[in-house]
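Please check this protein record:
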Amino acid sequence: MPTMMIVDDEAIFRRGLRAMIAASDKEWDIVADARDGYEALELLEQHRPDVVLTDIRMPRMDGLQLQRIARERFPELQVVVISGYEDFTYAQQSMRSGARDYLMKPVEREELLRVLSSVKQDWLNKHKEHDHDVVPEGQELRQQVAAQLVAGIMQSNVQQMHLDLLSQIGIELTDPYYNCMVIKLDKDSVDNDRYRTTDPSLFQLYIQQFVQEMIQFRMKGFSFVFSDTEVAALVNLPDAAEGERQLLKLAESVRMQIKSLSNLTVTIGVGRPVKGFESMLTAFREAQMALIYRLVVGGDKVLEYEQSVKHQLFQSERKKWSWEALERAINEGRLHGIDDLVDSVIIELCQQAQTPELVHQQICKLLIHYYERSEDLGLTKAWLGGRDIRKLLIDICSISSRGELMEVSRQLFGSLTAVIAAGNRQLDSDPVAIALHYIEQHYVEPITLTDIAEHVYLNSAYFSTLFKQKVGKTFIEYVTDLRIEDAKKRLASTDEKIASVADATGFSNIRHFNRVFKNETGLVPKEYRERVRQRRYKHI
């Protein structure tokens, strides 16, 4: 099979390209990788690869210099260069100097496969070798095992067959206890340009391979890419307590070494040990639950389920956070400083909330609040485009990074503010007016003063005073009046049963309805209906 060397100054790209090539075309043998041109020249002498896949921009000796020197020493060497759009002129120079082809960052699988297929065909034609049907069975089996495990976890159906598959690739998990950790890249640790110009799957592949290497040295286990954003690791332990301690130690080593070697940070959730392979799903779910607490405590940490969830060590005295400044800016269509206001609200919320679920809940409540207002004003399409609000809320609840939550919130609330500004319109910023509108739509439901105060993001005591000042009635009096007026109309114009009228107008039971109705009208509902009808008959 043809041989290749990868040259790039970032370890994550070298590892990622290795994994991508192995997954895309198993007929390549990657014999070496190098950090720069100088190291590459030394390895070329040692390994004599058929192809070099090299980045253009590197310290000490860049890809152009490497290509020129290597072609003098190894005339048959094929060179494929990797270039960012800003470095495209270098790629052109490289092609003029005899490069076989070039790839643009971010490297896409289809384009990589196209280039490698072309180079490989040339190599086959030259060497007349037709043994390319032989593939490394171990690598293929490993991918199958990973896929089967992911499917089993997703379907909540992990069985003995998965252990048998692991055994086929030489991973014997025979100890009685199991545990899991889930590793997630802290996206905010990656430079925006670097993340944008890199296939995100490269980061996951790098983390997965790194974790697997660490596991092999310390304990029995298997790591695999679980999703587009998560790497999972299953470990086998002879003892529950000591095994848990060792896994936490391993997780901390993974976190520190990835940070040291690649300038990336990860957050790792760790579950509790379980007995028996079939119970592994419990440990996996616990690791995911622990990972969610990244939203509250920040990234670059190892989060243990036992501490973060069971004992709720991240709970603090509940404080109220305020949205008033952000609300005013959005309602007035005031774009200046909107991003800073969003960030300050998210930071305060994450610092003071008791649980990640409460953070998600508050953000979703604010989005629903503005969705309802934008619907009333016909601004929803301009604000959200074709996005479905339900899908948007699900996406919000899947975020476990404070940085990602701020980024998404800035985009959402910033775009709404821009829509309001562009339309030269203002949302009603009077909290009592908003409350009255909400009450009129929901008075038949069991709403409370606290519910309405939270809807307008005010303290309930302050809102109660403000409501009485503006409306001239207490909240209870106002809601009761709405319900009684609705009940009067129903009693006078329909033959509904008294109990049905009570239920349809928001009263919890017929006894309570009778008492309140009599207090307000001087009559019980039955008497009121009879009297109204008697008056009608007199006028006929």
Notes: The radius of gyration is 32 Å. Confidence is low (pLDDT under 50) at residues 129-136, 310-320. The first strand starts at residue 3 and ends at 7. DSSP finds 26 helices and eleven strands in the chain.
